[in-house]
Task: structure prediction
Amino acid sequence: GIQVEQSPPDLILQEGANSTLRCNFSDSVNNLQWFHQNPWGQLINLFYIPSGTKQNGRLSATTVATERYSLLYISSSQTTDSGVYFCAVDPPNTDKLIFGTGTRLQVFP
Amino acid sequence: GAVVSQHPSWVICKSGTSVKIECRSLDFQATTMFWYRQFPKQSLMLMATSNEGSKATYEQGVEKDKFLINHASLTLSTLTVTSAHPEDSSFYICSATRGRDSPLHFGNGTRLTVT
Result:
């Protein structure tokens, strides 16, 4: 099956710093989503981005489907950005969403 | 829009008992619902795919007789953990979608502890 790897696995930042999270996938996909899981376990949709670039406030994402990767940019990080960031992909001919390995982000004041 | 409600948010039960978890799409009709399990510090692992009015499709290694899934309507799917054991303790999360090419929306999860 498709492999979805995220890097880095862990990231520690000081408030105000910028960061880039990467998601690599081993096969073509129909769709890709980015999620933030907060410390209480809630999963929040960040982006639905099968290709191209989208921005939402301090966050932006770019997916290059032909090269099988996606990037999530966090600018001017805040302590509330802490948590785990997951990308998830929807392979062709399935209805499944397969999750990546995750990046655990800790932002300190 | 696109709110998914999951209940209960946490449950503690004794070994051998059964636990039912509900997942509802509040403001849209969900043709497909998914059930995931997440162990501490790990990613979400898909357990099964549930389509309204038909039998669930289970992922390899997931016991269908232990994890009973019912998708009785376009807004409700249930997961029943039967004869629960301590190793079933985990965080269970449901998700729902209007259909292919639509974003997936998640419930807030259920933390199950089996003593």
